[in-house]
Amino acid sequence: MTAKIEVTTPRAIVTGGTRGTGAAVARRLRASGMDVTVIARTPGDGDAENGAVRFVPADLTDPDAAAEAARRVLALGAPDVLVHVAGGSGSPAGGFAALGEAEWARELDLNLLSAVRLDRALVPAMIEAGRGTIIHVASIQARMPLWDGTLAYAAAKAALRTYSKGLAGQLAAHGIRVNSVSPGGIQTEAADRLVERLTERFDGDGDAAWDSLVAALGGVPLGRFATPEEIADVIAFLASDTAASILGADIVVDGGTVRTT
Ligand SMILES: NC(=O)c1ccc[n+]([C@@H]2O[C@H](COP(=O)([O-])OP(=O)(O)OC[C@H]3O[C@@H](n4cnc5c(N)ncnc54)[C@H](OP(=O)(O)O)[C@@H]3O)[C@@H](O)[C@H]2O)c1
């Protein structure tokens, strides 16, 4: 008699999976056969809107909303893949002087604590399952902070990267791999919004604002920002068994922008 083999579809959770990079990640994981749930405040206009992926609404800067989203996710079972993409900077241009308590709290809440609080709620079930992989999307700004419009964001992403590394060490013994991905510029509406905010400092000259951003980066050797799909491919690789021995790593995907090792 042949033993019955039960095959279950891997479950993936993608925060910020409704727009930009997160939507590309959700599409990519779904294409590789996973059951995908996305968490964001609004369904956006991609797969969450047309029902191809499950949508759980939540503002992840709100601890109660994050806890409720975690409860809904856990009702499906322990996640196999958890990708934290939600993030971004909404701060005004102007550097340290433009950042008050509210701006600092907002950037830390969205770019660090949203991931921490969701991990805290979901990791126990992953430990019990004895498997899984977690990917935190940070930024090259963790290494190379820019001051104009993104100083608090950069500090939060550096904390996220450090947190991710520490968590990787703790969860390795439980069969859970934790890594981070640090993109440079990605061609998304969020990057356009940053240039719009910088435009205020250049009397409405968008080209000058764009040039200032690229100059602050010291140029992009590749000659362009990455596409959301390119970032999604790297995340899908990290989530796959092909990356079974990659743990506690931070993968930079920046077209050569960061010049140091
Ligand atoms: N774009 C870049 O150049 C760049 C460079 C380096 C790193 N990154 C990082 O890459 C990630 C994705 O960036 P992106 O440009 O693709 O962003 P994006 O296009 O602005 O998308 C952000 C996603 O996060 C969701 N989100 C935002 N605030 C949220 C909240 N409070 N609670 C729950 N969901 C929230 C958004 O949906 P809702 O608004 O409907 O909630 C959306 O799905 C971010 O972590 C960003 O920091 C981006």
From TrEMBL:
InterPro entries: NAD(P)-bd_dom_sf (IPR036291), Sc_DH/Rdtase_CS (IPR020904), SDR_fam (IPR002347). It comes from the Bacteria. Gene3D superfamilies: NAD(P)-binding Rossmann-like Domain. GO terms for molecular function: oxidoreductase activity. Keywords: Oxidoreductase. Belongs to the short-chain dehydrogenases/reductases (SDR) family. This is SDR family oxidoreductase. It comes from Streptomyces mimosae. The lineage of its organism: Bacteria, Bacillati, Actinomycetota, Actinomycetes, Kitasatosporales.
